[in-house]
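Help! Submission page says 'invalid entity' but I think these are all valid:
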Amino acid sequence: MQGRPLSTSPKLKALGMAAWAACAVAVVLALFVAREASADQGGPLQRIFYFHVPSAWVGYLCFAIVFIASIAYLRTGARRWDLLAHGAAEVGVVFVTLVLLTGPIWARPVWGTWWQWDARLTSAVVMWLTYLGYLFLRALAADPRTVGRLAAIVGIVGFINVPIVHFSVYWWRTLHPSGPTPANLADGSGLGGTELLAFFVSLGAFTLLGAWLLAWRVHAGQLADRVEELELAAELGPGPAVAVTPEPGMGT
Amino acid sequence: MSNTAWLFVALGIVFIAIGGYTASLMIRSKRSRARLEQLTRAEH
């Protein structure tokens, strides 16, 4: 393992507290401040939008990190890039799973069905399966370091689908809405000031949450690497001394 | 179920899932740290 862990405990704790505090504010704004949508948009159920879209945004962001970190890993071979890519894929899959679970809850009363195989939904499922496959590939490998290069290729190629998911609503006729529109004063539709505030606070809160989970996931990966190194050194018997820096507690 | 009830179901799913993932990271870190301490003691 190279160097010290990327994240130190006090920074992680502060980031976590900021993320959860921002989430609490976002929930209050989304539930009590933003105007309720019209009945044809699901009425109160439309408030899912304030959690569904930010989850998708964090998923995209994480998969972009997988893409960049995978290129960096193939170029440098540095384990820290591999750990970052692995962690980002895991966090991204968590958030995209939430997208795929919350979307149908909104769709059922509005579309009259839980699911439609339209371009957005289908490409999103393909994206989710791609990164789930990436995680299975890594989980099945006996030594996580040997699978790094293969996983990096999957992480780079898999990213091709991410812009397709995003632009699918513009490229093809889909049932899925193309995105929020500015407030229309004539009929009161679209997003007004309070809705935009709730949306951007939620977007910021979920971004912080994603960053915190990713930093923690990388930290956990570094600890696991260090354990593995020491176990290997213990198995090989007496040899050159292994320098061990005790890890500061994260208060967990 | 009413739309409001479904909204709370969706919110519950979001925060329980994120909380669950957070708990899994906590457990993984704790286990690694405990094992690390054990190995460090054995070294000495």
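Support: the input was valid. A stray whitespace character was the problem, and the output above is from the cleaned input. Chain B touches chain A at residues 3-4, 6-7, 9-11, 13-15, 17-18, 21-22, 25-26, 28-30, 32-33, 35-37, 39-40, 42-43 (CB under 8 Å).
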